[in-house]
Design brief:
Blueprint (H helix, E strand, L loop, with lengths): L5 E5 L3 H14 L2 E5 L2 H9 L6 E5 L10 H8 L5 E5 L7 H6 L4 E4 L4 H11 L15 E5 L2 E4 L3 H15 L4 E4 L6 H11 L7 E5 L5 H9 L15 H4 L4 E5 L6 H13 L1 E3 L6 E3 L3 E6 L3 H6 L5 H7 L3 E3 L10 H16 L8 H9 L5 H15 L2 H20 L3 H16 L3 H27 L4 H8 L3 H10 L32
Parallel strand pairs: 1-2, 1-3, 3-4, 4-5, 8-13, 8-14, 9-10, 10-13
Antiparallel strand pairs: 6-7, 11-12
Helix pairs in contact: 2-3, 6-7, 13-15, 15-16, 16-17, 16-18, 18-19, 19-20
Length: 502
């Protein structure tokens, strides 16, 4: 985009128009006004479409808001900001459900209006030349969906179809691939978008806390006097997203089945049924068939959830979008930290597109954040490839002296001008031998108690499960001989070194 950013404002209030013209003049935006919402819709259909629409609702107007439904069908990517009077503030939920990105309630100052516009307007002067509004879909202040390639365009179309069917959906994909974003996209496109979207990570808490988080509590304990609603009640008429569903205890899965079948729930310790009009979206990064075989996931629950399944592609399956993602994340993070965005060289973009990104979008964002702050692109990118090399050296160490020597060897490799190539070769050679050996030894020592093995290896439980699945390990297989010495330290950072080097 080299054209000027275009704003279309529907308002008859001179104060609103004056404020907007003043802001637009400062930011070099082009502003046009329309006398009615229907006039605005005609302009959106014909001629040059705006990049953002500002809809100023007249006091007590009950009809203008419904134009949002038609605008959303014509231009689902068009950001809309609604302005209303305090007495119409209760219509905020309806405006959001019909497609408005934000609702501003009078009175507000120019700074607040400018900030609201800036959150949703892709400004061509901001240096985000590759970020066409058709490719970047803002789902919230910190969440966005990119559909710059055929894979994600197909995914977006699938999400739009599923949004119209008010049924459970199972979202599959690697850790960090964006399952949460897809869930938010389905919610935003659905008729429930005006109500809450609540997320619960089933791997983050023990069974009792998870049960209270989902189903609430009756307040029977000394510390809790009043009944506390769970997220199923709080998400009434909205959507609840259950991440890592295979980590939910078996007993709670039974209660979840009851909610799915009867649309009713019971608080722990109570026999009073509570209506549960909520849509359930679930996700997992685990191997579902293995989870069912190991009785980590109820088979009937799986069939209930998997009637509609979405497979989220990994970042290495959408390499054509990496440049767009890098620049969007750079400008997003630069605004957040109040720093000037940095440019990516051609060599760096090429290296990023050839890297496997085992941590997917989470790893990509961490990389951009480091580069924004540090500025040394060679050093920052080499850290991505050296993560496993350092971990492998620590794994082979049997005492502090050997550990120090191995770290020295890794440093020598980093200092070598051919560092990245040498590290790629090292990763390729050590990956299966060292990492799988360390995991196998830890599992053997703990009698295949995976939580104990994760503590021994100093990694998260989820990371260990991912590694076991990645290396196709099972208790029936003989493990590799244990390392010499009694020290195990894998310490593979989540999202680092989990995939094959490019």
């Amino acid at each position: 985009m080299t054209e000027t950013a275009r704003l279309l404002v529907v308002s008859r209030e001179s104060a609103v128009l004056r404020s907007l013209w003043s802001i637009a003049d400062t930011n070099s935006w082009h502003v046009e006004s329309a006398v009615s919402a229907w006039d605005a819709m005609e302009r959106v259909q014909s001629g040059v479409a705006p990049h953002l629409l500002l809809l100023d609702l007249p006091r007590g107007d009950g009809d203008t808001l419904h134009i949002l439904r038609w605008l959303h069908r014509l231009r689902p990517d068009l950001p809309v900001i609604v302005i209303c009077f305090p007495e119409d503030a209760d219509r905020k939920r309806e405006a959001t459900r019909l497609g408005a990105q934000e609702v501003l309630i009078r009175p507000f100052d120019e700074a607040k209006l400018e900030s609201a516009i800036g959150r949703y307007l892709v400004s061509p002067e901001s240096g985000q030349a590759d970020l066409d509004s058709q490719d970047i879909e803002q789902l919230g202040p910190d969440s966005f969906f990119v559909s710059a390639g055929p894979t994600t365009q197909k995914l977006r179309a699938q999400a739009e179809l599923l949004a119209e069917a008010d049924v459970p959906v199972l979202i599959l994909g690697e850790t960090g691939s964006g399952k949460d974003t897809v869930a938010r996209l389905i919610h935003k496109l659905s008729v429930r978008s005006g109500f809450k979207f609540l997320k619960v990570n089933c791997a983050d808490m023990p069974a009792e806390l998870l049960e209270a988080e989902l189903f609430g509590s009756e307040g029977a304990s000394v510390s809790t006097i009043r009944a506390t609603p769970g997220k199923f009640e709080r998400a009434e008429k909205g959507t609840i997203f259950l991440d890592e569903i295979t980590e939910m205890p078996f007993g709670l899965q039974t209660k979840l089945m009851q909610v799915l079948q009867d649309k009713l729930l019971f608080r722990p310790g109570s026999d009073k049924a509570i209506s549960a009009d909520v849509r359930i979206l679930a996700a997992t990064s685990a191997n579902v068939e293995r989870a069912i075989a190991e009785r980590k996931l109820r088979e009937d629950l799986y069939y209930r959830l998997s009637a509609f399944t979405v497979q989220v592609p990994s970042l290495r399956q959408r390499r054509s979008e990496i440049a767009v993602l890098l620049r969007h994340l750079m400008h997003k993070l630069a605004r957040h930290y109040g720093l000037a965005p940095r440019e990516f060289s051609f060599d760096m973009l090429d290296a990023c597109q050839n890297y496997s990104w085992p941590g997917n979008l989470k790893e990509l964002e961490t990389f951009v954040k480091r580069y924004l702050v540090a500025g040394d692109q060679e050093l920052v990118f080499s850290e991505l490839e050296s993560t496993f090399a350092d971990s492998a050296d620590r794994t082979h160490a049997s005492d502090a002296h050997e550990s120090a020597s191995s770290h020295s060897g890794a440093s020598d490799l980093l200092d070598d001008p051919s560092g990245p190539k040498s590290l790629k070769s090292l990763i390729q050679g050590l990956k299966w031998e060292a990492e799988k050996n360390a995991i196998g030894t830890a599992l053997q020592k703990t009698g295949w108690n995976r939580k104990a093995a994760a503590r021994l290896l100093q990694v998260s439980y989820r990371t260990l499960l991912y590694k076991i699945d990645q290396y196709h390990m099972s208790a029936a297989e003989p493990v590799l001989p244990p390392f010499q010495g009694d020290k195990l330290s894998l310490q593979v950072a989540t999202g680092k070194g989990n995939g094959k080097a490019s």
